[in-house]
Amino acid sequence: MDIALKWLTLLHNPEDIVEIRSIDPKPVISGYFKADSAAIAKEIARFPNRTFYQTLQMVQPACYARGQHEHLMERPRETTSDNDIAGYQWILVDTDPVRPSGVSASQPEKEAARKVSATVMKKLMALGFKEPIVADSGNGYHLLFKIHASTDDRQIIADFLSVLDMWFSTNEAKIDTSVFNPARITKLYGTMTHKGANTQERPHRASRIIRMPEHIEETSMTLVRNVADVRRHMVAPAENPRQRNGAAFNLEQFLSEHSVQVIKKIAVSIGTKYLLSECPFDSSHRNGDAAVFAYSNGSFGFHCFHNSCSGYHWHEFREKLDPSAYANSPFTVHQAANILVPPRSLPNGKAAAPASGVQTGRPRMLDFASIPNYDRSKIVVIRSRFGKLDAKIGGFNAGEMSVWSGGNASGKSTLVSQLGLAAITEGFKVAMFSGEMLASRVREWVLLQAAGPEYVEADKLNVNHYCLKPGIEQKLDAMLTGKLSIYDNDFGTNWEDVLNTIYDWVKENNASVAIIDNLMALDLPTGTMDKYDMQTRIVKRFSAMAKELKIHVHFICHPRKTEAFPRKGDISGTADITNVADNVFMVHRVNADFMSRYKMVYPKLEIPADVGNVIEIMKNRDLGVVDEMVMLYFDKRSRTMSDIKGLPPQYAWSEKIEQISMNGFTVVDNAELPDEWR
Fold first, then answer.
1. Which H or E element spans position 228?
2. Radius of gyration of the CA atoms of the chain, in A
3. Residue 368 in domain
4. Which domain holds residue 398?
5. Beta-strand relationship, 85-97 and 141-149
6. Fewest 10 Å CB contacts: which of 117, 215, 257, 672?
């Protein structure tokens, strides 16, 4: 019983109030104790052969004065209700094997629960969740993630568990979706679990904690909300076009018609899961890594567990298999097909042969009724992989140009190079010009960003510098070869030379993104033309290249010096630069100057703690979004930004660099642990 008290104080502060309860067999027995109370062991000993539970969340101190104060009472008048809980401190992920009711689990059944629980732990930690406490409940397994949340977050936690059930439950073991309410009780670890008869095949077992981190860290509720938000990607029946014969959409028929192999069909709490033999977006994601969901309310969903597919949901899945499914619909766009249109003219102004299929001598004025509809399903979109930015603007359309501006050290170059890596993750090739750094310095910068904080370490020669862990550089080189090319400044930075070199490389390599960092670094011709007019002309030429080659150009343009909060009109060149651009963004560094000025423009905006940079959307031609802010958190180790605190960018190659490290935990007894938990 001493070990039970030790584990009780692992989950609660010594002065916290905990209800200890036994519910089976009748009558109910309950007592309120301080977590370190010596009376707990004595009281439990009075009731042998019973299973005991504990409240997991923060009980209101006033409950300590109830009749069962510091002792166990039969048939108590009150036990803990949701209104008696002050807040959440743990999320319980309870995996139970499927078995007849009223009996203990057999060893094979328990093993099925272990496999599911281990997978949940691995996948959630890959998403940024802190290491949980792992407990053997006697018949299944518990994962306990430390959090801090209000009881108002009850629905978020309910949705979170529902999503885990969708993702991970099998026919043999299920995630319990009912344990979300604040007053939920769970096993008092260290005590016996009595369920049915104690037989050799189905024995009674002690519940116990089998693994805990060396330092218990809190998981951000932002990460919990991100998983819970997957429920929002369920596509309601009204948003699903009917089948071509007018009949209601039939998922199994759709999968069969498009030769999608289902390896297993699993019932989950809110519908049916179809595990796929391979992911349609990446055939290396196999054996159930991707799944389609048919929910009981008639809606549908899709999910792949790999980081590189995290942005694909039902609409993207259906359109991948049936490109015409959402024709003339705003729901989706093509994500992967790179479309190159033969040039009508070269960027240096020289004439080129007419593009194949272009009609000569046709009328320049088009009758309104003869103009084809603008088909959004034909747009190629390159996502930023900043979820909040993509949610606002949809992503970066091929054939368009984004102008990025911001003061010195605002993070423009850092941000735009990260967008290049995001594009590579999406399957696109990228050309980059950096006029202010040698190619070797750009390489060093990009390697740190591509590795992410997990694979960098402090430089022993300089405490303010970080470098790659051994072996990571070679792996990244292999993964980025042929996908990213950097202009060699040794050939000079004449703007026409840069433009033509990038133009040729993009066309030859079927690339889709060009990064120009920055306008001021391009050498301008000497002559009578005004400097700002010349800058505008250059930006227009790069914009023409974007449209001609159907690529997206990210162009960094410094603002003019100003003591005020920088606005669109402060960007170098004439106003034509921002008129030509399809998107205009201002990047702000959250420092003392920013904090003293931003309220003049955005009086109602509040900047959360630890936000390092802000993207201000000043123009978005496609969707008309303006005056929106996206908050970013900066990681100085890898020089990356994220719109989710504590979660670094997720690249396609992250999972291939190295399996998630599972070191640094403490095993609390000598029991053998499965490989997944070593």
1. helix 221-228
2. 29
3. no
4. 380-654
5. antiparallel
6. 672
